[in-house]
Amino acid sequence: MPFEESGSRSNLYYSFSVAGVHVVMLGSYTDFDAGSAQYKWLHADLAKVDRARTPWIVALLHAPWYNTDSAHQGEGESMRKAMEGLLYQARVDIVFAGHVHAYERFGDQCGPVHMTVGDGGNREGFALTFEKPSPPISQFQEASFGHGRLRVVNETHAHWSWHRNDDPDSTIRDEVWLESLAASRACGVSLQAHAPSTSDEL
Ligand SMILES: *[C@@H]1O[C@H](CO)[C@@H](O)[C@H](O)[C@H]1NC(C)=O
């Protein structure tokens, strides 16, 4: 894993930028509390992001922070409590997770969209039991094999689609247009360029 390039000392968490997207890979199974090396690295990494150069920030981790499936319920909760504030303040756009063998999408107005895409296929079968009724922030749930596609169209718009694999024809079951939170005036921020200041250094 290309971790040294992003100033990380562990291959369990690192970041890179590609085509207008700053991608942050986080480790669910290593320390993440405020005093941890991962936390300090994440804080410093997010402070360096220049949204004029990478208008999108996407984070990936293993155990979802939001999950209405009975499988692996609550397993991402301590990491969420420790790190969610950092991602929220940095206006991270999307958080992808796996772990739960199903697809679920969460949305909230000014926070990241959380997607669990744990449905690539596995020998253990599906995680079929979702909470009913769904809480409003859980906008789509389905336990079947599938895959997703994120198309970054430009600095403000991206299109996400989730495709079910079981059908004879190509089937998009869920899709949504996403607007970069860097540009969202509705959320009361404008993070065009964020130069690191001394207070960002830990
Ligand atoms: C970005 O893409 C969206 C969706 O296609 C479009 O509505 C918008 O005008 C585009 N913005 C720019 C600056 O091209």
UniProtKB/TrEMBL annotation:
Molecular function via GO: acid phosphatase activity
UniProt keywords, alphabetically: Glycoprotein, Signal
InterPro entries: Calcineurin-like_PHP, Metallo-depent_PP-like, MPP_PAP, PAPs-like, PAPs_C
A matching Pfam family: Metallophos
Keyword Signal: yes
UniProt name for this protein: Acid phosphatase
Species of provenance: Nelumbo nucifera (Sacred lotus)
Domain Purple acid phosphatase C-terminal per the UniProt entry, residue ranges: 111-174
Domain named Calcineurin-like phosphoesterase: residues: 23-103
